[in-house]
Amino acid sequence: MGLVAAFEQVGQPYRLCRVDMLNEMKNDAYGRLNGRQETPVLITDKGAVLTETMAIAAWLAARDTKRRISFDPRSPQADRMHQLMAFVNTGFTAAFTPLWVALEAEDEKPETLALLRDFGRKSVAERHEKLEAMIGDTPFLAGDRLSLADTTLIGVARWAQFHQAVDGSAYPKLAALRRRIEAEPVVQYALAIEDGERPAGFGACVGHLPLAEVISRFAA
Ligand SMILES: N[C@@H](CCC(=O)N[C@@H](CS)C(=O)NCC(=O)O)C(=O)O
User: Fold this and answer.
1) Does residue 106 surpass a pLDDT of 90?
2) Which of 83, 32, 34 is nearest to 54 (CA)?
């Protein structure tokens, strides 16, 4: 969702492909697109397959010549953007793993599930405290406008509510930041796409492709 907002903000033509993660991803055909059988996947303008959120974000930043979602690569804002993206994509994201495992575990003993949930909630709270301390005085994570750091955060931050992992009001800077990010038109657009709507957007999305076509054209 965050990367869709980022592509829309950059404003260069792109197409989207919706993946049903439960039913379409865990098979050999999708595995030829991404060996880890995960989203996201980018097919570049050269037809190359690129996986991993950070790699796709870096690809986009390198082409964001008008600096709509990134900063000059040698600027302090770019350094801070990369620092926050790395924090969010590693420890902050990983802290939720025990909660996902507990959610998806079938036939596990109640005490194992309780242990996973307790460990997950503690990990998520600890990463929330660290992130709250890292949020500065600028309206967005790396400055006064939306950047890839914010779009990386916004998709993952909502997992805290989904898992009822922490009390959001205990992290007021993060709560205010999330409200600002979610109010951005491109983020509203990406949320609508995620919900299965076809919002008009700002003209950069030039179409939607079925997954079968993407696999037949680009899978190894
Ligand atoms: N390290 C990868 C992680 C990607 C990832 O975990 N994707 C999730 C969706 S947000 C997924 O596909 N989960 C399904 C699974 O792991 O089975 C990245 O940053 O792109």
Assistant:
1) no
2) 83
Residue nearest to atom 6 of ligand 1 (CA): 38
Q: Which residues pair with 43 in a beta bridge?
A: 49
Q: Is the CB of 152 under 6 A from ligand 1?
A: no
| The one-letter amino acid at 145 | R
Phi then psi for residue 59, to 5 deg, are: -60, -45
| CB-based burial, 131-167: b 16+ in 10 Å, e otherwise | beebbeeeebbbbebbbbbbbbbbbbbebbeebebbe
Structure token digits, residue 206:
């030039």
Mutational test site, ligand 1, from 39, 90, 93, 152, max ligand atoms within 8 Å of CB: 39
The interaxial angle of helices 185-194 and 172-183, nearest 10 deg, is: 80
- For the chain, the domains span 2-218
Q: What percent of the chain has pLDDT over 70?
A: 100
- Select from 1.20.1050.10, 3.30.565.10, 2.60.40.10, 1.10.260.40 the CATH code of 2-218: 1.20.1050.10
pTM: 0.96
Residue 5 Ramachandran class (φ > 0 left, ψ -120 to 50 alpha, else beta): alpha
* Residue with CA closest to ligand 1 atom 17: 38
Q: Give the residue whose CA is nearest to atom 3 of ligand 1.
A: 52
